[in-house]
Design a protein that fits this description.
Elements lengths: L3 E2 L12 E2 L17 E2 L3 E7 L9 E5 L1 H14 L8 H16 L7 H7 E7 L6 E2 L10
Antiparallel strand pairs: 1-2, 3-7, 4-5, 4-6
Length: 140
C-alpha cells in the first residue's frame, strides 16, 4: 500500500486523496498556485476619550456578526438604513466588534457613542492574510 498524496496541507477533511499508483504525470495537472485568502470582515481603529493615553487606539475586526446585529437593532430603534446613517452604523458595528473582542467590557452603546472620538477603516496588511491552501485538481 502506498502513502496517499494530497494537494492541501491543512489536513484530511474534505480533501481529494489519490494513491501514488494512480498518478500519471501526463494525466494529472500540476497543483493550482496558492491563492491568498483575506480574513472575513474589515479592520477598524477606534479612538476613545476614556482616559486611554493619547495615540493609543483599539483595533478590532468587524465581521458579519456585527452587520447582522446592526440589521436587527436599527429597525427596533428606528435608526434607518445604514446608507442613510453611515456614521451611526459604523460606530455601532465598531462598538459591537469591540464588545465581542473584550476591548470595552460590557459598555453600553450609548456610553460608547459618547466616548468614541473616531472610527477609521484600516487597510489590510500581510499579517491579515489567512493561510492559503492549494485547490484540488479538476476532476476529469
Amino acid at each position: 500500500m502506498t502513502n496517499p498524496v494530497t494537494y492541501d496541507e491543512a489536513g484530511p477533511a474534505g480533501l481529494v486523496m489519490l494513491e501514488e499508483d494512480d498518478l500519471d504525470d501526463a494525466a494529472v495537472p500540476a497543483p493550482a498556485p496558492l491563492e491568498p485568502r483575506a480574513l472575513p470582515g474589515r479592520r477598524v481603529s477606534i479612538v476613545l476619550d476614556d482616559g486611554t493615553p493619547a495615540g493609543v487606539t483599539h483595533v478590532v475586526r468587524v465581521t458579519n456578526r456585527e452587520l447582522v446585529l446592526w440589521d436587527k437593532t436599527a429597525p427596533r430603534r428606528q435608526w434607518g438604513a445604514a446608507q442613510d446613517v453611515p456614521f451611526l452604523a459604523n460606530t455601532f458595528t465598531a462598538w459591537a466588534a469591540a464588545r465581542r473582542a473584550g476591548v470595552i467590557g460590557d459598555l453600553k452603546f450609548e456610553a460608547f457613542q459618547e466616548l468614541c472620538l473616531d472610527v477609521t477603516d484600516l487597510a489590510e496588511d500581510d499579517s491579515d492574510a489567512a493561510r492559503p491552501t492549494r485547490r484540488a485538481p479538476a476532476a476529469g
